[in-house]
C-alpha cells in the first residue's frame, strides 16, 4: 500500500488548491487602467533590471520559461504565490490594523467548515494521533467589548503534516470547524497539536527550492479566521514556542505576537493555551 506521503503529491495538492482558488470571489479586485499600468510596468521594469544586472543568459531565460510553464501544469501557482509573496501583501493590507495581528491565509483554506458550539471538539478520526490541545479565549472589539456570537474558523494539518481535502484518505472535514463564540465572545476548542511540514517538493516549487538550495519547511501552526458583525475579519496563524523553523519559516509568516506558549492541561491530557482576539471596527 502507498503511504499518504506518496499519495499527497504536489500535482494532486496543487491542482486542488487551484480548483479551490477558482471558486474564490474576486469582486474587490477591479482596478482602473492607470493602476494596472503602474503595477504591471513596475513589475516588468524590475524583471528587466534583474536581467541586466545579472547578465541573464538565453539558457537561463529558457529554463525560466520552462519552469513557469511547469508551475501552471502542476497547478502550483497558488502554492508559489502564497509561500513567497502573500506575506508582503498581508503586511501592506493590514498595516493600519489596531487589533490582533494577522498573517497569510495559505493555499489550504476551505470555506463552510462544520458549524460547532462555543465549547467544541474539531472533527477528527477516533484514533487521531497527536498531543491533545485545548485552545480557548475570547473575541473582543478594540474598545474591550466582548463580541457575542463571533465566528472562529480553525483548520490545521494533522500529526503527519497533511490537510484534509488536500491529501487522500483523510475525512473531508478532518481538523476543520467553525465555532460560534458564546454571549461573552468566549470559545474553547479541543484539537491536537499539528506537526511542522514541508510544502510539496515533487513539483515545480520543489524544483525551485532544490535549485536555490533552500529548505521547504513550515513550522507547526493553527490557521484561524475570526469575524463578528460590524468588525473586520482577521486571518492569522498561531505557532508554538520552541517549535522547529519558527525562525526560518519558508513562508516568512511568523510574527512574535503569533507565537503560543502552551502549558500542561488542567486535566493532565496534553496541553492548553489561551489566546484572545481583538477585532477592529469595519
Description:
The protein is α/β, with parallel strands linked by helices and 282 residues long. 29% of the residues lie in helices and 22% in strands. The protein contains seven helices and 14 strands. The chain has helices spanning 4-7, 10-22, 33-54, 58-74, 77-84, 86-93, 204-212; strands at residues 115-116, 119-121, 132-141, 151-155, 176-180, 186-192, 197-198, 217-218, 221-227, 234-240, 259-260, 263-264, 271-274, 277-279. The strands form three sheets. Strands 1-5-4-9-10-11 form a six-stranded mixed β-sheet, with no helix packed on it. Strands 2, 3, 6, 12, 13 and 14 form a six-stranded mixed β-sheet that branches. Strands 7-8 form a two-stranded antiparallel ribbon. Helix 4 runs antiparallel to helix 7 (204-212). The longest helix is centred in the N-terminal third of the chain and has 22 residues, at 33-54. The radius of gyration is 20 Å and the shape is globular. It starts with a helix and ends with a strand.
What structural class is derived from the secondary structure elements? alpha/beta
Basic shape = globular
Low-pLDDT stretches: 1-7
pLDDT averaged over residues? 92
The N- to C-terminal Cα distance equals 51 Å
Proportion of residues in extended strands = 15-25%
Count of helical stretches: 7
Rg, Å, rounded: 20 Å
Tell me the major beta sheet. Answer: 6 strands, mixed
Helix content: 25-40%
H and E order = HHHHHHEEEEEEEHEEEEEEE
DSSP E strands, number: 14
Q: How would you write the strand order of the largest sheet?
A: 1-5-4-9-10-11
Amino acid at each position: 500500500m502507498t503511504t499518504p506521503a506518496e499519495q499527497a503529491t504536489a500535482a494532486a495538492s496543487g491542482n486542488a488548491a487551484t480548483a479551490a482558488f477558482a471558486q474564490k470571489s474576486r469582486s474587490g479586485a477591479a482596478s482602473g487602467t492607470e493602476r494596472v499600468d503602474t503595477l504591471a510596468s513596475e513589475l516588468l521594469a524590475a524583471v528587466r533590471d534583474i536581467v541586466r544586472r545579472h547578465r541573464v543568459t538565453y539558457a537561463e531565460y529558457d529554463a525560466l520559461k520552462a519552469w513557469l510553464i511547469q508551475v501552471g501544469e502542476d497547478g502550483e501557482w497558488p502554492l508559489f504565490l502564497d509561500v513567497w509573496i502573500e506575506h508582503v501583501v498581508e503586511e501592506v493590507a493590514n498595516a493600519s490594523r489596531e487589533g490582533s495581528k494577522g498573517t497569510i491565509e495559505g493555499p489550504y483554506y476551505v470555506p463552510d467548515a462544520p458549524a460547532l458550539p462555543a465549547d467544541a471538539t474539531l472533527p477528527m478520526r477516533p484514533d487521531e494521533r497527536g498531543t491533545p490541545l485545548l485552545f480557548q479565549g475570547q473575541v473582543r472589539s478594540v474598545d474591550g467589548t466582548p463580541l457575542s456570537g463571533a465566528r472562529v474558523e480553525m483548520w490545521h494539518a494533522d500529526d503527519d503534516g497533511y490537510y484534509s481535502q488536500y491529501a487522500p484518505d483523510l475525512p473531508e472535514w478532518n481538523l476543520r470547524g467553525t465555532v460560534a463564540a458564546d454571549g461573552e465572545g468566549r470559545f474553547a476548542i479541543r484539537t491536537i497539536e499539528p506537526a511542522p511540514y514541508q510544502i510539496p517538493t515533487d513539483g515545480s516549487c520543489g524544483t525551485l527550492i532544490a535549485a536555490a538550495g533552500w529548505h521547504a519547511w513550515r513550522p507547526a501552526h493553527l490557521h484561524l479566521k475570526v469575524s463578528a458583525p460590524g468588525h473586520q475579519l482577521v486571518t492569522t496563524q498561531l505557532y508554538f514556542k520552541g517549535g522547529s523553523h519558527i525562525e526560518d519559516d519558508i513562508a516568512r509568516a511568523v510574527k512574535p505576537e503569533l507565537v503560543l506558549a502552551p502549558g500542561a492541561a488542567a486535566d493532565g491530557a496534553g496541553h492548553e493555551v489561551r489566546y484572545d482576539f481583538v477585532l477592529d471596527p469595519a
